[in-house]
């Protein structure tokens, strides 16, 4: 079976609907047909300043949510990045074949470093995409399920794999992004041309998986639309309604065309009310299961430790292969 790898940062107390629809939901689906490795990327989460207690909590909350949405640790490898030292080791060797200018062109770094002060623009934030490339390449990854915002980082991972292979001989599998167009960019409910993001200006623009469902329902009802009261998919002219249609279709399994038909001539009130119900139905069981996993942190930590051991069994030999190709002497 082809290998899948993906990661998510533990930088919030909840995943949001963009993370879920753009990435994590696809991770669950791919378990059917792929050999999957999923990672809570805590090394990435310290690149822009953090609090240790908060990081610890968010790492567990992230893992619990992944289990709650259906990542099965019996068939997939689920682990925390810092528990597998090969990631930091792999990042070093890849950083030595990355051009300074090449790294400087990463748009996410430019966005994030321009927003914050000194702590926001650490060298770690600058080399972040190289660590991400190491994550992916250490698992002989064929496909990487992510949202649209990760496309440029995936391109860098491919370039680095190809460069390493051509300099030192075939070593890394060249990974392909797996970006599902319909949900690759879920947008902000208050600012529907911007992506839904943890750093959104208003909390009303994002739906957190773990927030009070009543709150989510209210956010859907007050989502920005337009003045022509027609439920129709048109990203250019009707970005707000189009985003709600994408969310509705993804969560209900109905097609956008079917939804347009059902709401023809009915305005936005019913549409939003029904979507709010769908959202609540999806969130409630995820919240219950997440709470159950968090109730037993010792067991959660055991699941993650076992995951890290399985991850090392894959990443260790791949790193050893790369070390050998580079010309490092074999360790004892
Ligand atoms: P992160 O933690 O920001 O986001 C996790 C995943 O959610 C997707 N996503 C979205 N998809 C659709 N619409 C949105 N509004 C939206 N917002 C976020 C992201 O594309 C991502 O797939 N650099 C990565 C983490 C990472 C990684 C990796 C990913 C580290 N190593 C290796 C893949 C492979 C990140 O910051 O994701």
Automatic annotation (TrEMBL):
Q: Where does L-tryptophan bind?
A: 135
Instruction: Could you list this entry's UniProt keywords, alphabetically sorted.
Output: Aminoacyl-tRNA synthetase, ATP-binding, Cytoplasm, Ligase, Nucleotide-binding, Protein biosynthesis
- Pfam families, per the entry: tRNA-synt_1b (PF00579)
Kindly state the positions of the motif 'KMSKS' region in this protein. 195-199
* List of residues binding ATP: 9-11, 18-19, 147-149, 186, 195-199
InterPro entries, per this entry?
A: aa-tRNA-synth_I_CS, aa-tRNA-synth_Ic, Rossmann-like_a/b/a_fold, Trp-tRNA-ligase, Trp-tRNA-ligase_bac-type, Trp-tRNA_synthetase
Q: Where in the cell is it found?
A: Cytoplasm
The GO molecular function terms of this record are: ligase activity
Reaction catalyzed? tRNA(Trp) + L-tryptophan + ATP = L-tryptophyl-tRNA(Trp) + AMP + diphosphate + H(+)
Which major enzyme category is it? Answer: ligase
Write out the function statement from the record.
Answer: Catalyzes the attachment of tryptophan to tRNA(Trp).
* Family of this protein: Belongs to the class-I aminoacyl-tRNA synthetase family.
The protein's assembly and partners = Homodimer.
Please identify the protein, giving its name as recorded: Tryptophan--tRNA ligase
> What is the species of this protein?
Fodinicola feengrottensis
């Amino acid at each position: 079976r082809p290998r899948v790898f993906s990661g998510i940062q533990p930088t919030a107390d909840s995943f949001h609907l963009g993370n879920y629809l753009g990435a994590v939901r696809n991770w669950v689906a791919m378990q059917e047909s792929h050999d999957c490795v999923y990672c809570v990327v805590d090394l990435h989460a310290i690149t822009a300043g953090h609090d240790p207690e908060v990081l610890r909590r968010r790492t567990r909350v992230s893992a619990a949510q992944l289990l709650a949405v259906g990542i099965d640790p019996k068939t997939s490898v689920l682990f925390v990045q810092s528990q597998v030292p090969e990631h930091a080791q792999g990042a070093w060797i890849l950083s030595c074949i990355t051009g300074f200018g090449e790294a400087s062109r990463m748009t996410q770094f430019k966005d994030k470093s321009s927003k914050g002060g000194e702590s926001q623009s650490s060298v770690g934030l600058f080399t972040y995409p190289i660590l991400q490339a190491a994550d992916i390449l250490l698992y002989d990854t064929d496909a990487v399920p992510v949202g649209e915002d990760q496309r440029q980082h995936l391109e860098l991972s491919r370039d680095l794999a190809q460069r390493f292979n051509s300099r030192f001989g075939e070593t890394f599998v060249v990974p392909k992004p797996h970006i599902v167009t319909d949900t690759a960019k879920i947008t902000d409910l208050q600012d529907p041309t911007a992506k839904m993001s943890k750093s959104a200006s208003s909390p009303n623009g994002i739906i957190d998986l773990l927030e009070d469902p009543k709150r989510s329902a209210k956010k859907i009802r007050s989502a920005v639309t337009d003045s022509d009261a027609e439920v129709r998919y048109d990203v250019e002219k009707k970005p707000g309604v189009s985003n709600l249609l994408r969310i509705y279709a993804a969560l209900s399994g109905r097609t956008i065309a079917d939804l347009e038909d059902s709401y023809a001539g009915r305005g936005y009130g019913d549409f939003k009310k029904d979507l709010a119900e769908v959202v609540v139905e999806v969130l409630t069981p995820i919240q219950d299961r997440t709470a159950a996993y968090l109730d037993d942190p010792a067991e959660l930590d055991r699941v993650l430790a076992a995951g890290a051991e399985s991850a090392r069994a894959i990443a260790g030999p791949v790193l050893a292969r790369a070390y050998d190709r580079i010309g490092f002497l074999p360790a004892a």
